[in-house]
Every structure is written in C-alpha cells, then in structure tokens.
Amino acid sequence: MITVTILGAGNVAFHLYKAFKNAKDVTVKQWYNRTYSDISSYANEVDTIDDLSKLEDADIYIMAVSDDSIASLSRALPFENRLVAHTSGSVSIHDLDKKNQRAVFYPLQTFSKDAELNFSEIPICIEVTEKANLQFMKDLADALGCSAYKINTEQRQTLHLSAVFINNFTNQLYRIAHEISDAKSINFDILKPLIMETARKVQDMSPYMAQTGPAKRNDKKTIKRHLKQIESEEHKAIYELLTASIKKTHNYR
Amino acid sequence: MITVTILGAGNVAFHLYKAFKNAKDVTVKQWYNRTYSDISSYANEVDTIDDLSKLEDADIYIMAVSDDSIASLSRALPFENRLVAHTSGSVSIHDLDKKNQRAVFYPLQTFSKDAELNFSEIPICIEVTEKANLQFMKDLADALGCSAYKINTEQRQTLHLSAVFINNFTNQLYRIAHEISDAKSINFDILKPLIMETARKVQDMSPYMAQTGPAKRNDKKTIKRHLKQIESEEHKAIYELLTASIKKTHNYR
C-alpha cells in the first residue's frame, strides 16, 4: 500500500485527491492546505490539516500548489530526506528544497474543477533526483492506471509550452469560431462534431498528414473570400498568420 | 425509397457514396465521373458512367465536385426541372443552373479518403430554392442518421470560414506542438490525450468557460519564459498573437 499526502487545493490537487482516493493500492494519508476552509468538507473522509507541523510519515508528499509557492513550501516542510514531488509543468525539479528527496509528478492534462475526467487516460511525466525513486514514481502512476513517461525538466517545460498551443490556443480558435458563427445566428452545435473529428484524426495520423483546406491547397480564391468575410481585424490577423504557417509547412510561399 | 445519383469522385463523393449505399431507405441509382477510372472499381455494385447523356431519372442528383466545377457541370446536365444539389460550404445555391430545382446538401466535416468516419454524427446543412423540397432534403439527411440544419448561403459561408479556424488552424497548432516537442525528442503520444480532452471539453461547455492557462490568467512570468523557449520566429509570432487574443477575450489588455 502506498501512502500519499497531498498539499494544496487547486484543480490539480482536487483531481489527484479523487484519483488517489479511488485507487485501491493507495491511501491518502493527509491533505494539507494553508486555507483550511478549502478542504474542510473532506474532513470526514481524510485527515485534513492546515498546520505543517502536523504532517505525519508518508511514502510521498505531493505538492499540487501554484508554481510560485513550490520553492517556499518545500523549504517550510518540517522534515528531511523524505520523498517530495511537485506537479508543475514548468518549475524545475531543483526548485524543491534539497533537504528532501525530490521528484516531479506532472499530469499532462487540462483540469477544471467542474469537468469530470477519466484520470487513467492522463500521461504522467516523471522526474527524480535519486534514481532509486524512479520505480516508485512509476508504480504511483500505475496505481492510477496512468501511463508514465520519464521526462527531464527541459522536456517538461517544452511539453508545457506545447500544451499551450494544443489546449489554450486551440480553445481560443474554438472561441473565435463561436464568435463568428454567433454573429450570423448559427447554432454552435453544428461545429462540435468537427471539433471532435479534428482531434480524433491526429490520434493515429500525424498533424502534417491530417491537414486539409484552402491554405494547404494554396487556394487563393477561397482565402481571399474568407479574408473579405472576416469583420474583426484581430481575427483577420490570426487567419493570415496561420494560413502563412500552413503554407510554409506544406511548401507554398 | 429515395433514389440518388452522385456526380464526382472526390473525398466527399466517396464518403457520400458509402453512406448512401449503407442507408436502407436510399438506393444509389448511378455514379457519374468525368474520369471513369476513378470510379470503375465500383462498377460491380452501382451503375458507373462517364457520359452525362446516360443519366437516368433520380429523385436527386448530388454534385460532390470541386467548387469551380459546380456552375459548369450544373449547366451541362441534359435535363430540366429535376432536383440538383451541390455539397460545397462556400458556393452559393444560385451558382447552380436554374433550369433545375436547386438545393445544397453540405456535410460539415473533414473528409480524408483513408479516415473511417461515422457518417451519422455529421451535421448536414440544407438549403433549397423551392420550399417544397425542404422536407425531402431533411428526409435524405435523416436516411443517413444525420441531423439536418436549415442554413442559408451566407450562414453556410460563415460556417465554412469557422471550420477553417476549427479544423485547419487547430490542426496547424497540433503540427507546431509536434515540431516543438520533436525537437526535444518527446513522444507526441504524450500530448494526444490533451488534444482529445480539449475538444471534448467544449462539447458541453462554451470555449469561453473552458479557457485556462497563462494568457487567461495574465501570467506574465510564464508568458515571458515561453517566448524565450520558442526558437522559431514564426511560432513566436503565433504565440504572441493568440496570447493577445485570449487576453482581449478575458479582459486583460
């Protein structure tokens, strides 16, 4: 049985808590948060605390806190030589205080408090300072049914950047399509199957191979008509930049 | 039983043929293509022709041909007052020769010849010049198990533009993430669940509500670090423009 103590109460902390709680080979030993009221409603199912001095022994302490709090919280931990991990995509493993054994447990996914999530489909990026802890970290991911990938800090920061393109920027393109279609009283539902299929297609085909459309074909007539249709200068700039990017990828200049 | 004749042999034509062929209330009467060899392998299951004068009676003639060929092919049809539809997202219904009754049957989805597609999940955008044909067009979509939406030409052109943002541009963001992660020897598979979840999230939440990340939070430190990480000037420009767009949407300037 693996014992885990969670620190923090953001989206990742909540999802991790639920996932560990449901994992049969894991016990959540304690849940710490500076602001007690954020976790108090869980007091009947786990030992909830707001005082670091009350932290008991656990196989791993997982800090799911904001990037800026990781270094200071790791310094404030009142013990040494135990295993401490953070869950951030962008913070170096060396930002953790070296009085403890250090690790990273970064679940690469978008977390919202409301959205239900099948945790077992989330890839976990793992890093350790002590090689001996690598297998333990893999076992921990495995206990959640997740695939684990050994990823160093530089790669992890690159993944975090890639995730901004894939999640935040993609979502903004959805938003722009929503604005454009709303302006003509079009039900956004019509576009939802296309959103799904666009994502599904690259699960077993490279994005390069999956590309279609006027930019890929260098269809100047359609591109010109689209630019005439777009009312917002901002949307026009995005259309032009991404069209140029597709053309460059597919060798039109 | 509805009889359908298909004209053309592009991706949409192939997928439509397969979908109509499998629909129990539809018979594919004939399949016409100017270049016979493109459809000759279907000769044993449907009447394949390359001569317009051989076209027989059908309830509807669906032209799934390139945008530029629609007007000329509709003029070349050797009959009058029958129901003729095109499948384009951007061509006006009035580009069809008015000697026939005109309609549009636009399946809003991305089509690749190789990718298997569940046709019943595709929204069909319908337009007619004769109101009496509206129900027939709906029945035709229904025969494929598809949802039908009455969409006029201007709305359809807006949908086509929106689809470029949602499909082509989103796919290019996947491509950029692929390039960025490849450069650090990262397995692209790690990013695939995030691609799916990003799409899934907006199936029951607006893109506005679904947004997360550094631009949404106006997290200048992370944005600055990301810009430093990006090696290509082109990717940097895209990062900056989409970050500014998200900030604008969420009221940071």
**End-to-end C-alpha gap of chain A:** 59 Å
User: What name does CATH use for the topology of the largest domain in chain A?
Assistant: Rossmann fold
Spans where pLDDT lies below 50 across 5 or more residues of chain A: none
Q: What form of chain A results from the Cα inertia axes?
A: elongated
User: Helix count of chain A, per DSSP?
Assistant: 9
Number of strands of chain A: 8
**Top-tier CATH class of the largest domain in chain A:** Alpha Beta
- Structural class by helix and strand composition of chain A: alpha/beta
Q: H/E element string of chain A?
A: EHEEEHEEEHEHHHHHH
Q: Name the chain pair with the biggest interface and residue counts per chain.
A: A-B, 89 and 90 residues
Mean pLDDT of chain A: 95
Radius of gyration of chain A: 22 Å
CATH architecture of the largest domain in chain A: 3-Layer(aba) Sandwich
Which bin fits the share of residues in helices of chain A? 40-55%
CATH homologous superfamily of the largest domain in chain A, by name? NAD(P)-binding Rossmann-like Domain
**Oligomer classification:** homodimer
Beta-strand proportion of chain A: 15-25%
Main sheet record of chain A:
8 strands, mixed
Number of domains of chain A: 2
Across the major sheet of chain A, the strand order is 3-2-1-4-5-6-7-8
